[in-house]
């Protein structure tokens, strides 16, 4: 995009829209990327009415947790959090959208600054176990001034955190109160020993903190087995790659058989040149293989065992999904070139429009 000097995927555009649902997120968004209102509007321009409806559905879904979350916070602390005020937006289609709350998350790849106490959760420390509920804390006025994380996995992450808080925070605090009672502590230690008492606390902390935990030897072996089963059945499985290859059928539906054939011909006449030229024109395509690999391999995050394994195993884990990415690129390149040539013909050679159109077709197919 010439307005901001970099390419934007549909996912990123949707994330920008979701951060425009209230004034606080909007200010953080523009401050973090040094954008103005006109640049934000240019980013949102290609989105469809269906995309705007999706954004409002997300805002409404986030809102559905507010009353229960706020009531829990007030019951436990005596303080009711301040609700983020929605900012109405007018879409390019003339429809007014209510806007709403959306979680603030900064892009860890673009900022090494200290966490903003108003937005970033604090994990429990010491023996005073408590469920992570940082998303209920009062937001600071200015935020970090760092770029926001423009990916939609913010949504399931926030929902999981919210549900975990509603489910476990109060019971964890009640159990912790019992365990801190001097009589209970003495009784457990006399009957089972100090180590068992500490183990009960560790178990309670594991319930309170839903982030990945360190594991003992047996757990590491079992986790290693699960991890590598997923690694080889997904990453190196031929049928998985074959399924990726059927994506060309979606291309035919999107741009038609004629332009799909044009894309196939242009790509496979000289695949290396087609790849180099497409990635030179489109930053999105330049990162496509690794993006596909990352999206699939993220599903294995909770299966990760940790450090201490052989270098070969680590290399296999890092590259197992690359074959899937390469096969996917074998579909994406013809799709991109077919869409690019189609739009070049329709616009009389407007390369910028053609690149954006081709990027979008690849994203939706």
What does this structure look like?
The chain is mainly α and 365 residues long. It folds into two domains: 10-211, no CATH class; 219-364, no CATH class. Helix content is 63%, strand content 1%. It contains 17 helices and two strands. The protein has helices spanning 10-18, 23-33, 37-44, 49-63, 66-77, 154-180, 182-192, 194-208, 217-235, 238-245, 248-269, 271-281, 283-286, 288-297, 311-319, 322-347, 351-364, and strands spanning 89-90, 96-97. Strands 1-2 form a two-stranded antiparallel sheet. Helix 16 (322-347) packs across helix 17 (351-364). The longest helix has 27 residues, at 154-180. The two termini are 21 Å apart. The relative contact order is 0.09. Residues 113-132, 212-216, 220-245, 295-313 and 315-322 have low confidence and may be disordered.
* Domain module count: 2
**Hey, roughly how much beta strand do the residues contain?**
under 5%
Low-confidence spans: 113-132, 212-216, 220-245, 295-313, 315-322
Q: Could you tell me the radius of gyration in angstroms?
A: 25 Å
Multimerization status? single chain
Can you write the helix and strand succession as a string? HHHHHEEHHHHHHHHHHHH
Form type: elongated
CA(first)-CA(last) distance: 21 Å
